[in-house]
Amino acid sequence: MSDVVVVGAGIVGAAVARELAVRGVEVTLLDRGAVASGTTGLGEGNVLCSDKQAGPELELARAGLALYGELGNRLGEEARIRVKGALIVHPDEATWAAEPARLERLRIPGARLVDAGQLRALEPELTGELHGASLFPGDLQCDPRAITLALVREAVKAGAEVREDCAVKAVFSGGVRTAAGEHLQADNVVIAAGAWSAALAASAGLVLPLEPRKGQVVRLSAPSPGLVRHKVVDGSYLLSVASPAAGLELSTVVETTWEGDVLVGSSRERCGFDTGVDPALSDALVARAARLFPRLAQLPVAAAWTGLRPWLPDHLPAIGPSALVGGLWLATGHEGAGIALGPVTGLLVAQLYAGEDPVVDPAPFDPDRFSRAEAARAASRARHRRALRRHRRGSGP
Q1: pLDDT at 384 exceeding the cut of 90
Q2: Judging by beta carbons within 10 Å of its beta carbon (0-12, 13-18, 19+), is residue 119 exposed, middle or buried?
């Protein structure tokens, strides 16, 4: 029997297991496949504050960015951390007009506005028509799969047990039931299963309206490194991230891989667990990116793939212990920011478990907020039905 079973061995679950294990907690980490074989291994490795809005997620992202400095010192070259900065570029006058006020709200050290002329020095190939940009020099890129494997290695060294190819079918008071019918006992269970978390939460009796939000990425073969120097994001991306729409939405993000190829995104749609690649969508993403970087239209497509982001309707992750279901913890719902927020989520969970001062206020990430909202709606409906029955009795013959 373990103190804690963590379900999901992506970067979030790995960080939770590591942070608990180094505090002396007996941890078992489970995954239906291999470590980092899900969404974590498919991402671009972005750790960004530039794409956030002021509020709880930004505060968590600030703490997460600082924690990556510690990871870099601990893991060295293995983590492949590059502090290359991000540019939020604005081909649309409306988003450009709103950017100064956004920067003022964010108050990120070193972030500044850059006019169209200065942009050419920062990104010589960025020759599309732009009003300007905002530069966030502290944003970085990393190797999320390598970091996740390292976190698991550290967890095991501290005494954690890891079980791959061990799918969990249900969470119950005191443990989990696997697809093979095995019951694993634990005082606490942490659901860190990304886009697959909702059904597990439901099996434990907790409402979690989490859905997979599919995204497609294209890799272009570049003739030499350095074609794109920063993470470059169209300002419309910020609107896409915040949109509640379920249908397909496109925006433009461009950056390079560690080896120098170019990555192009981004799409968002809530269409279940479909992970099929759409070649027409790849063409559309490259065409949009070529409006900013015309040379990209000349580069051959090397690969395209999709991943499933864990989306929650209020755009905040669910992190911490449930007060409604004893022994249940959540660490999920980070949508497209799982890499940035994974290590700091693990730290926050461990701090709450151990009774330490939390790195950020955990209240906005309350895992019970959706169950409470649903209970309030149910109570409101019940009151309405009672009032309607009283009205009908009072108006009868």
Answers
A1: no
A2: buried
Domain ranges within the chain, ordered by starting residue: 1-82+138-210+312-368, 86-137+212-310, 369-394
- The residue with tokens 């972005």 is 46
Stated length of the chain? 397
Q: How big is the CA angle at 110 (ends 293 and 57), to the nearest 5 degrees?
A: 85
Mean predicted confidence (pLDDT) in 358-379: 91
Rounded Cα distance between 248 and 240, Å, is 10
**Whole-model pTM over 0.90:** yes
Q: How far apart are CA 191 and CA 126, in angstroms?
A: 42
Q: Cis peptide leading into 266, omega within 30 of 0?
A: yes
Tell me the per-residue pLDDT of 301-341, one tens digit each, with 9 for 90 and over. 999 999 999 999 999 999 999 999 999 999 999 999 999 99
d(CA 112, CA 373): 39
Pick the CATH number of 1-82+138-210+312-368 from 3.30.420.10, 3.40.50.970, 3.50.50.60, 3.40.190.10: 3.50.50.60
Q: Which fold has domain 86-137+212-310?
A: D-Amino Acid Oxidase; Chain A, domain 2 (3.30.9)
The mean per-residue pLDDT over the stretch 46-52 comes to 96
Which percentage of the chain shows pLDDT scores above 90?
Answer: 91
Extract the tokens encoding 191: 């659901």
CA dist 211 and 129 (Å) reads 36
pLDDT tens digits along 277-299:
999 999 999 999 999 999 999 99
- Assess contact for 134 and 30: CB atoms under 8 A: no
